[in-house]
Amino acid sequence: MSPTRRSVVRTSALLSLGLVAGCLGTGGGSGSDDDTTDMDDTPSDFPTDSSDPSGGTRPSGGPGITLTSVDSSPDIPLEPMVEVSEAVATDERPPQLRITLTNTSDETVEVGEGRAIFFEYVTDTSNDLIFLPAGQEYPAEAGCWRLSDPIAVTEEYRIESFDPGESRSKLVDLYGATKQDGDEETCLPVGEFRFESTFTVGGLSGGEEDRKTAKWGFSLSLE
């Protein structure tokens, strides 16, 4: 295993998707105006008309992602960034984001939890949507991209190590979270959604550094 990409696994168990949202996802508001960047003027490659005659259940050619706000970098030696990789949902793939983390310090940085920092298995604050690692198959109808069954995820605390100046990216696909009994059956919903994750740096593998925790996130619209 590369010394720049080692992971430390602490515990192992199984969680349903609902528990993962509580473990890896984080609640909270959209942040203050002081620590967010307005993305309303960001150009997009898909129509901005938010009308949807299918009632938010379009199976193909939409909806598409627009980043509406991104938090300022947290006060830790790791700078996160989010970009739209695939804007529009199609029959072949769901919308997709690229999460990039960069060690801005001149020392090695350990950070956890290793999946949540890349927004893998993180739900939005209303539990309507979830990001999953790209390039894998999940129980969702192509074109609809709503999970039909919960995803089993190991409950473990992974630690990622970043060398000085190292930058690392991962792709995450956007799915509709599993619906509860009695909920209306829809595909990807339209509207604005907020995602947050917690970053814990220092003192994670027995080191002497003081442990520091920060939250960072972004909002996106689907239309």
From TrEMBL:
<protein>
    <recommendedName>
        <fullName>Lipoprotein</fullName>
    </recommendedName>
</protein>
<feature type="compositionally biased region" description="Low complexity">
    <location>
        <begin position="44"/>
        <end position="57"/>
    </location>
</feature>
<feature type="region of interest" description="Disordered">
    <location>
        <begin position="21"/>
        <end position="77"/>
    </location>
</feature>
<feature type="compositionally biased region" description="Acidic residues">
    <location>
        <begin position="32"/>
        <end position="43"/>
    </location>
</feature>
